[in-house]
Specification:
It contains 13 helices and no strands. It is an all-alpha fold.
Length: 307
């Protein structure tokens, strides 16, 4: 398994390079520049700005310079956030986003697996139909609709919770954004768990465990649930990366200073280095989590081998 992990890590290097190259040249080809929204300046001042940030050099020279900085762990300075480099901004945004995303992920996983398992064990019963009906409703309602509805009911009408901001990450400010981010995913995970659990409960190894006289609780908890987690784990890999690095919509709605909000503002302002830094950071997390999913597969399913 270690050999497999090393090979996957080395194979990720060309992928990251392609991500960097494509993002770099796409940003440069987009109309506008990082200083177009500034007040009108003289040609001399504009030339000095371009020279200071090496924007007057040929594109391939800029790309080579940027790669050289990356090899030293330098993402470069931000063009719009003065006195901050990209690494500081990414860390500041990620510090908020991972709390938001991790909380939503844990809640979605626990509730989704519990509800899906209950529906599978009570297949074709009232509980099954009710939970899956609610789950389908949750899938049909996206989080950019869920967030305003929760804000309207719990924030404005009932006045139980603040409707925006992050505060210091306290519980009162976190409830609404975490709920809006987690609830649609609870529905997805519940349906994945139900379908997989029904299939596993009909498999030969579960029938054998029951035939040997194992209590139903042990059969379900030690054998069925573990095997039923394979499709859920596959889904959690990319979804966790997307959630932990920040949900753009949720952060914009609630005014949360996370990495997703920084990415949107950087794209609008043509902040080349910040956009590149966020994309590289997101790509690295996505590759790492997909590798982690593959390794968890080997633990969940003994038939999987990494020779």
């Amino acid at each position: 398994m270690l050999r497999f992990a090393v090979k996957r890590a080395l194979g990720a290097i060309p992928t990251l390079f392609l991500i960097i190259a494509i993002t770099f040249f796409m940003m440069r080809l987009a109309p506008g520049g990082p200083f177009d929204k500034e007040r009108k300046v003289t040609a001399e001042v504009a030339a000095n700005l371009a020279r200071a940030y090496h924007l007057d050099e040929p594109l391939f020279m800029q790309f080579g310079r940027y790669l050289g900085g990356l090899l030293q762990g330098d993402f470069g300075p931000s063009f719009q956030y003065k006195d901050f480099n990209v690494s500081e901004l990414i860390w500041h945004g990620f510090h908020v986003s991972w709390k938001l995303g991790l909380s939503a992920m844990v809640i979605a996983f626990v509730l989704g697996v519990s509800v899906g398992s209950l529906a599978a064990l009570r297949q074709n019963s009232v509980i099954d139909y009710a939970t899956m009906g609610v789950a389908m409703t949750g899938i049909a309602i996206p989080n950019f609709v869920m967030a305003p509805v929760l804000t309207l009911i719990l924030g404005l009408y009932l006045r139980w919770l603040p409707v925006g901001g992050w505060g210091d990450g306290d519980l009162a400010h976190a409830v609404l954004p975490v709920a809006a981010l987690a609830l649609p995913q609870v529905a997805v995970i519940a349906r994945l768990t139900r379908g997989s659990m029904i299939e596993v409960l009909r498999s030969n190894f579960v029938r054998t465990a029951r035939a040997k006289g194992l209590p139903e609780r042990i059969t379900i908890s030690r054998h069925a649930v573990k095997a039923a987690m394979l499709p859920v784990v596959s889904y959690l890999g990319p979804w966790t990366a997307n959630t932990i690095t920040g949900s753009v919509i949720i952060e914009q709605i609630f005014g949360i200073p996370g990495i997703g909000r920084y990415f949107v503002q950087a794209a609008l302002n043509r902040d080349y280095t910040l956009v590149l830094g966020v994309v590289i950071f997101y790509g690295a997390i996505l590759i790492f989590l997909n590798l982690l999913v593959d390794l968890i597969y080997g633990w969940l399913d003994p038939k999987v081998r990494y020779d």
